[in-house]
Amino acid sequence: MRPAMYGAYHHITNLTHPDGPIEVVDVVGSLCENNDKFAVNRELPHTEIGDLLVIHDTGAHGFSMGYQYNAKLRSAEILYTEEGKARQIRRAERPEDYFATLYGFDFESDQ
Hints:
Keywords: Pyridoxal phosphate. GO terms for molecular function: diaminopimelate decarboxylase activity. By secondary structure, this protein is mainly beta. It has 2 domains: 2-61, Lyase, Ornithine Decarboxylase, Chain A, domain 1, CATH 2.40.37.10; 73-111, no CATH class. It has 2 helices and 6 strands. The strands form 3 sheets. Strands 1-4 form a two-stranded antiparallel ribbon. Strands 2-3 form a two-stranded antiparallel sheet. Strands 5-6 form a two-stranded antiparallel ribbon.
């Protein structure tokens, strides 16, 4: 939401279609908020629903400052090494993580 709040810029890379024809798109999040936008009117290679995008420089969206607003689970964290290799350093949260501190939710049983 930082871009909508105070004009923060995040470089975005389309890993699925890196060389597609350039088009102007909006890149938005999944929250039901009108300011959940990473980019508005941004020129990117052709982008389709389901494409894998890298939104660079988003430290506040990592685990340390992430949040579970609207029951949004935290995503996995990927570290890129100096050698250019990707390494997962934290797994994505699962529903049982979200409810782990509440009593009365048993994800191990069939009930």
